[in-house]
Amino acid sequence: MSEPEDPILPPEDPGLPEDEAVEAEHDEALDALPPPSPAAQAVTGAAGPSPGKGARHDLIDRRDPLYRECKGYRLRLDPPDLARLRELPGSRGKSDDEIGEAFFDGQAERLASAIADDVPTPSEIRVVVDPYSRQAFLALENRIRGILSF
Fold first, then answer.
1. Residue 74 β-bridge partners
2. DSSP secondary structure of 107-139
3. Residues spanned by the domain of 120
4. What's the predicted TM-score (pTM) here?
């Protein structure tokens, strides 16, 4: 009787050695695959600075904040907040600039009025957007100073 620790070796194949047979099967399988298309290639890390062929430059992610002066306040939408605005209805196909400007066009007066009694002017206010609850949080430095539904 054999010990349980003894390995059981498979019978040897008189054909190709095992490593060569596996390599030959692998090569045949790779030859049968079509070449990958550019849309199927994985991209890791940050995207390059220039858009791909045919991509609209104005739909590229924005890397700088968007500002709007209103009633002595400098309202700021950072890139992550601009990206959150894409979740709102009517945002499809628009650039971050277009979405952010449209948001400020409709909300800047209300945002500034919401903090007028609490925050001295001039101040830079970060507008943090939650598209799901449709609320804007107005932050001065690291403190929320106002919440406004839109």
1. 69, 124
2. HHHHHHHHHTTTSPSSEEEEEEEETTTTEEEEE
3. 58-149
4. 0.59
